[in-house]
Amino acid sequence: MTKENIILYAKILRNVFETTNAVEIARRLRYNVGFIKTGTQYLKANTYKFEDGLKVILINDNYDAVSKNVLCAHELGHAVFNHANKSNYKDTNLANEYEVNLFAVALLFDEGSFNMPLAEMSNYTLQSILDANITPPG
Fold first, then answer.
1. In 3D, which of 23, 44, 3 has the Cα closest to residue 134?
2. Which residues are paired to 87 by β-bridges?
3. DSSP states of 37-52 as a string?
4. Which end of the chain, N or C, is more open, meaning fewer C-beta atoms within 10 Å of its C-beta?
5. How far is CA 101 from CA 34, 50, 69, 120, in A?
6. What is the pTM of this model?
7. Is the dihedral of CA 130, 109, 26, 1 positive or negative?
8. What share of the chain is helix, strand, coil (3-state, %, to 5)?
């Protein structure tokens, strides 16, 4: 999928569901979203895909609402792009991570609020934007 198509898909979801609430969008797309209280060293967020096609997004409930939304947007990207199971918010496939980071930023933020087009941003820049909006619990 091209960068432009990833951005367009995220914008379509925002418009169709009239929200940037990633948990609400995920649930309306019929993904199961759950929250668990555990140490962040064990889990920030993760997407699980089962053999029967069921996809579950699990988010650490110790984060604040903004952080949970950012984590869910990232995981929703893995779910919609059918990426294989991964572990603890770290995927070794950098192309997958670029796709979901681009998707998450396009879903959560208006492109006009940045000084460069989303399609020109590196994965490092996209990840930095997401990380800046995640507050560690505690």
1. 44
2. 90
3. ---TTT-SEEEEE-TT
4. C
5. 21, 23, 13, 13
6. 0.91
7. negative
8. 50, 15, 35
The values of phi and psi at residue 87, to 5°, are -125, 120
Q: Which amino acid is at 62?
A: N
What tokens were used for 124? 């490092």
Tens of pLDDT, residues 5-41: 999 999 999 999 999 999 999 999 999 999 999 998 8
- How much is the pLDDT for 84? 62
Residues in the chain: 138
Letter for the amino acid at 13?
L
Report pLDDT digits (tens) over 46-100. 998 888 888 999 999 999 999 999 999 999 999 999 876 544 345 456 889 999 9
